[in-house]
Design brief:
By secondary structure, this protein is mainly alpha-helical. Strand 1 and strand 2 form a beta hairpin. The longest helix has 29 residues.
Length: 195
């Protein structure tokens, strides 16, 4: 046992790798009694702050559509504030590929399939949470079928798949605006001609 070589219980526990941290699921974070191994990822660096997210005990921010890695807080701050070079917020800061959402994860994806698995786990988890914008009527959530949260009707069924996409709702609003502008112009011209 490690106690025999002069280590305290706490020191001995810190030599044992935390299996939950390796899977990205350690709930204790920096307060865990076991070793959070970062040696395998020592060259890993956030694309924004250039520090190792594991060494800072941060979650990884995984863009939904690319394989670049960031600290979750760094990526969320970048998406909020943007940068001078890029005004689009929903893109990867490195490759500028469209990324509709960011997945927070303690697990580092080892491949594209692993990243897709992490994204799928995250979206499946969110889909079980009722959307706070959906009030039972299709179109009540501004994200429509693109929403990550569940759109549950009064019978307990998720009806998100029959709702419209954000793009479809945008096009409907634009068409409605054009009709309204045409009607206002027609009314104005009619008043002008009749006087």
């Amino acid at each position: 046992m490690l106690f025999a070589i002069g280590l305290s219980r706490e020191e001995a526990l810190k030599t044992i790798p935390c299996q939950h941290f390796a899977r990205g699921q350690c709930f204790f974070g920096e307060h865990c009694a076991l070793l959070h191994e970062v040696e395998a990822d020592k060259d890993l660096a956030c694309g924004i702050c250039f520090e190792n997210p594991r060494a800072k005990d941060q979650k990884f921010g995984i863009p939904s559509n690319c394989n670049h890695i960031f600290c979750y807080p760094c990526l969320m701050e970048w998406r909020k504030d943007g940068s001078e070079e890029c005004t689009a917020r929903h893109v990867c800061p490195t490759c500028r590929k469209q990324s509709n959402f960011v997945v927070p994860s303690y697990r580092l994806p080892k491949s594209d399939e692993d990243r897709l698995s992490i994204v799928a786990e995250h979206t499946d988890k969110l889909a079980k949470i009722p959307c706070k914008h959906f009030d039972g009527e299709l179109g009540s959530c501004m994200f429509g079928s693109d929403c990550l949260f569940g759109h549950i009707d009064e019978d307990g069924n998720d009806v998100k798949n029959i709702d419209r996409t954000m793009q479809e709702m945008y096009e409907e609003r634009e068409a409605g605006r054009e009709v309204m502008i045409f009607e206002i112009r027609s009314t104005f011209v009619g008043l002008f001609i009749s006087s």
